[in-house]
Amino acid sequence: MARSIKKGVYINEKLLKKLGKLKVGDKTVIKTWSRSSTITPEMIGFNFGVHNGKLHLPVFITEDMVGHKLGEFSPTKKFTRHGGRMQKEIEAAAKQKEIDAAKAAKVEPAAAEKKS
Description:
Elements: H1 13-21, E1 29-32, E2 47-51, E3 56-60, H2 85-115
Parallel strand pairs: 1-2
Antiparallel strand pairs: 2-3
């Protein structure tokens, strides 16, 4: 447990003020840098722009997110891919399929023009 029970959950006060100004179901994005704020039931139905260190990622709050932190839904690292020989072979096979599909698409219109 990150905080003791007597302290309660952490919610940024500015975030609560911004929530108080909006109506439920309002689609405006509430920008926040407070990734450590806990999601409460009052936040359900709002859009938050949670900062990931570079930009604000939009997060729509639903019921099953209550109790989690805002930062959990805005990843800070971009996953590129796993490396290695197997991955290169898989990517090469996928690229070859794309090339074959493109060649087949080019051949079909030409064949249709010859028939007419």
